UniProtKB/TrEMBL annotation:
It comes from Seonamhaeicola marinus. Residues 34-185 form the Phosphoadenosine phosphosulphate reductase domain. Belongs to the PAPS reductase family. CysH subfamily. One of its GO terms (cellular component) is cytoplasm. Pathway: Sulfur metabolism; hydrogen sulfide biosynthesis; sulfite from sulfate. This is Phosphoadenosine phosphosulfate reductase family protein. Pfam families: PAPS_reduct (PF01507). InterPro entries: PAPS_reduct_dom, Rossmann-like_a/b/a_fold. One of its GO terms (molecular function) is phosphoadenylyl-sulfate reductase (thioredoxin) activity. Gene3D superfamilies: HUPs.
Length: 206
């Protein structure tokens, strides 16, 4: 749908734009959109920003099944406060079952790729196949991983979906201020079972 030249032009034009301006532009380009979340820290910002522009935008929550009690309580609060249109996707096998047959493999374990496929990649593919979005809003930011440093506000997924990261150049401090200004909660007790090492990309965004 988009060429690399168009993507580069958009990034140049919107480098200093506000998240709301970026989101409005994305919806102008195509209204068939989703916003994905796992309710990790600062996710309330992207959920608020996108749902403020389009109230009923589908929110795809891919829950690995290993979230902390704090994350689940945080998710319920944000969903209620923002009246989000949530579509929940979970692995086909429960975490209790997987604990018996596989456990949580370390990143060096040969089973790690299979584990990541089961708890993250397959549910995400299922979600995207069902919704078939042309635009995918996410809260990726510069400085999180080497891969994320290589993209920009606008990028293309492997399937050609326009991926939009409205807060790409924002620091934690700016996001803290955004959350405070909009009376949004945050929660840091988050666990990602696929990233036993810091700054590791799980493959979902790559």
């Amino acid at each position: 749908m988009f060429t690399e030249e168009q993507i580069q032009s958009l990034n140049k034009e919107f480098k200093d734009a506000s998240p709301s301006e970026i989101i409005k532009k994305a919806f102008e380009l195509n209204t068939e959109a989703v916003v994905t979340t796992n309710f990790r820290p600062y996710e309330a910002a992207i959920l608020h920003a996108v749902s403020t522009e389009v109230k009923e935008v589908p929110v795809v929550w891919c829950d690995t099944g290993y979230n902390t009690p704090q994350t689940y309580r945080h998710a319920e609060q944000v969903i209620k406060d923002l009246s989000l249109n949530v579509f929940l996707y979970v692995p086909k096998q429960t975490s209790s079952h997987r604990d018996v047959v596989m456990g949580i493999p370390s990143v060096d374990d040969p089973k790690h790729a299979e584990f990541t496929e089961q708890v993250k990649l397959e549910p995400f593919r299922r979600a995207m196949e069902e919704h078939k979005p042309k635009v995918w809003f996410t809260n990726l930011r510069q400085g999180q991983t080497a891969f994320r440093n290589s993209i920009d506000i606008f990028s293309l997924s492997a399937d050609g979906v326009l991926k939009v990261s409205p807060f790409y150049y924002w620091s934690d401090e700016k996001l803290d201020a955004y959350l405070e200004e909009n009376n949004l909660p945050n929660e840091f007790k988050y666990f990602d079972p696929t990233k036993a090492l810091a700054n590791r990309e799980c493959g979902l965004h790559a």
